[in-house]
Records
---
Amino acid sequence: MTNDIDVIEKVINSKVAEKVYDDGVSPAAIELGKLGQDLAKTARLILAPIQIAASFQDRFASFLEKLNRSVPDENLIEIPAELSSVCIEKMKYLDVSNPLWLMFEELLIKASNKETIGEVHPAFGYIIGQLSPDEAFMLQALNSSDFEIVDTMDLNKRENRFVNRQIETSTVPEEHLANPEALSIYYAHLESMSLVNWPVLKQTPIYEPGNNPQNQIGTRRETKIQLTDFGKLFVTACVPKDGFN
């Protein structure tokens, strides 16, 4: 396995390092005792331009060790600066237990391995940065199975529209969401990034007693929330195989 200096140099493109020198950042600004004094210069090149707090240094060092264990020497490649800089800038605000931190880790590890770089898109770092932890969990869960939802709505004949949506059954794991009331917002946000869709599989009219087709009073829908093809690629690249445990 390569030494830590090689790992760090691959994590951040040389252009980032050049920017540090251009900005005249002091070498004393960064201390990474965990990595050893022989890594101080290289670590400074990575951390100085984004003004990392001391608490992030330990977290970042742990990530470097994880990357070091995950990628064989012969597979290690340089990550494009447009990806690594976005990921590391966002990671400094996250705790290691946050699903988004784990997604950034996974993405950077995939991007540093010549055998998995083909799974990575430059936009993935920006997408992770826009997610909430609940949305990250939803994507992980959807990778295992679709969310099946059956609901009913009343027909407002005066306004010619359906109202009063009521859910009959749902497989959405709301008990694992911090804010399940925001499910509609989560879906709209994920859909706007082309990660999920919510097709109606079957729609059945509801009639007044007697099933008179002239007296429809509502509708019953069978639907499912599912990953799009792009969403599947995103999850493959960014969600750890073991999930967020």
---
Amino acid sequence: MTMLSLIGLLLACFNGLLIYGLTPQAQQAAARSATATVRALETRVASPIVLTPTPTPNPSATPTPNPPIFWPNNNTPNAVLQLPEGHYLIYEQPYNPNLPSNPKNSRNPNSQQGNLFLAPLGGQPEALQAPGYIYNQAVRPTLTPSGQLLYSGDGLWLLDIFSGQAIQIATIDTDEVITSMALSADGRWLAWSSEPANGRGTIKIYAGPLASTRLVYQQSTADCPCFRVFAVLPASSKQVLAYLLLTDSRGSHEAIQNGLWVLPIPVAGEQGQQEPQEILDEDPQQGPLLLSPSERFLLYSPNEGQVPYPTDNSVPADIAALSYANSLSLASLAGSPPTLGAAQVVLPAQRALRSIADYHWVTTPLFTPDERALVYVEFSSDDQPPYGRHSALYTVQISDGNGHLRIAKPALLATSTAALLELGTWLNGHTVTFYADGNIFALDLSTGAIATLVQAGTYVRAIAVIGTGRI
């Protein structure tokens, strides 16, 4: 019996399917639709493809690596985190020339095909057979509240993780690439964008119900801001189905996000093409980072910048090419259409310092699921080759009492010797996954306990934790 067959039996023995790293609204929706499968979509889309995951060798599984996390003053030992049974990590791995099983995508040389994996927490991973999948740093796969994996590549696909059933819900032309994708918290509304692979032609934005999106906006690539989707917010209006939050890619296929605009999606037939309305200026170089789980707050950076490329290949090229936040601000997001309230500074900007090594940069910030804190990676870069990076974990307490947002000063949680450190997804309300130099770990923020989840030996990105029962 394969591991996936066992998983199917386990699911039959439990009443509910738990998905972590989702918003509270999405978790509630998951509870209501945990038994839903892709059958509901089969009447509207092509016949499903059923494939079987492939067992993947893991030669680096032993010995277990020492977590590269160190606590201030060494007051907290690296206790071993006890991992629950019946839970699985979904992660993705880009193309790597040293891994023959991970071929480069010949259809679009500007993209990398890569692989999606499913691994029991701390166990052996299996490659998911995901037709049409293409790794894209700018378009992260996501779980729907019903437990299906939504991913992009030669279109958009829904994959039932445990049955292996895959359905294509959107297509693109062979000379196009998908540049963004966002799912509403309740899983009902989907928005995404595409543009020509060569960067010349028409940018297209689609939105609508999950399995039946339609073209809602298009523009020339020569007429920037070059929009891509940041988020989709349901609307409580008879004339407007949803509001899209758009950002400017500045003509790049990388994960670049500057400025923020609101685009209403009217009921079909109500009006012609709407025009985006700016709510966050992109000049100076500022951009959105993420919404809070309740979608009431926006974390953004008023000051982004470029960081030297590490010349030792310790950071993948598509990550090294990103603009990084040098400052953080938090603002409320409310109204119909949504507008931003007064911002509060989380981390002030640094200006006119003597050396690039004196600047701090922020990557992969996350709100805790209860929205009471923010966790992020802060790093600095050497000013000499190979431009090594030095990272640390910080946390910021947040309170929202009587309509007044209060933000504490950032507090150092731990330092790291990893050349590249990134936060991933939540395992539960207080345990977060993180990537460090070819491995994925789980860290309990309340106790400091750590466990190794994946030993890939190459860059991988955590997507979500899915399982049965409670942690």
---
Amino acid sequence: MPHRDIRSGFWTGAFVLLCLGSAPAISAPIPETTPERVGLSSQKLQRIDAVFEEGIADGHIPGAVVAIARQGKLAYFKSFGMQNVAANLPMRTDSIFRIYSMTKPIVSVGTMILHEAAELYLSEPVEKYLPELTNMMVAKPDENPGTDTSGNQMVPADRPIKIHDLLRHTSGFTYGFFGQSPAKQRLKQSGLANLTSLDTPLDQFVTRLSTLPLAYQPGTHWEYGRSTDVLGYLIEVIAGENLNSFLKEGIFEPLGMLDTGFWVPKKDWSRIAEPLENTGEPQLIDVTKQPEMLAGGHGLVSTAGDYLRFCQMMLNGGVLEGVRILGPKTVEYMTANHLDETISRAGPYYLPGPGYGFGLGFGVREANGISAWPGSAGEFFWGGYAGTYFWVDPDEELIVVSMTQSVTHRGHYRMVLRNLVYQAIIN
């Protein structure tokens, strides 16, 4: 494993209070400015306040944190509502959230750190490093739903899974939700479909996963699933250290992401954001204990400020405040579309949505139009199961990070926030 330069990228600045309620003053994650100085309207940004305050009053969400940066400056950074309703704790701008699938872009960047160091190549078969993934089987489409899919409906994979497939979700690995298929059925039966339980160590998880069929032939179909969990184990094997240590040394410490990791230390439990109780919200991961499985697909916790720093590094072409994580061409490569015409995006569960392709860990916008929500070609984004969301718009030099803990209402606030941010651009 090559030596990684673990440098201090911490930013210290004036303490400000930009949140509602009685939360303590928090240092800004990047230098601040007024909205007008970066072409945003303060008056129009107030519409964001009104929408989130209404959602809290209506009992849709407990609270939220929203951060908006443009031209490298923080123009809007507010907290709303409650961090923990049961404990009567107001939301803070440094509240800690379960970010679920917003883990994936970070682990993808970790993979590309190894790629830049020539420790792996995207064209390599994953089985070179993880031999348990040799001779994978594929579940044929279920022509007779309800029949036994454990026997002759399995066929050998046409080719090995490549590292490239893991990064762009074309490996054939799936989740147990988003529709029905023989592969999803087998995953549910195995007990590996539960995202809340992290009691199986990563190596054992991948070994068990290797005994299950893929949903599609590798390299033929975009299918959201366990690819990034496998990617996390691949990092561990190649780097010779656990995923938490690798990300901490290679990304979190250099970028000053002090509150990002796979669990919350006891001293910070008072900052954990919780969903509303008794409202049909599903159970979320217990982040107060160190998990056995470091889930590269959904295991991290973070703050809006930490994630904003990660996004600013990406927007800057891999560098933040003189600390370089990736080269600019690597960032350009990651945020380009990697789904050509031979890879199917068919079906209602293509999560990037119309007008979007998929890069290496990020959904990427291919055109200004087509999509039902505003944005710019070249924008990249992703979100998390429990209500976190971000996007980076290079054309507008814009970053938006939004965090709440609401599975039920996440989609609504993501789309509304997009509309409200773009309507606030005046220059």
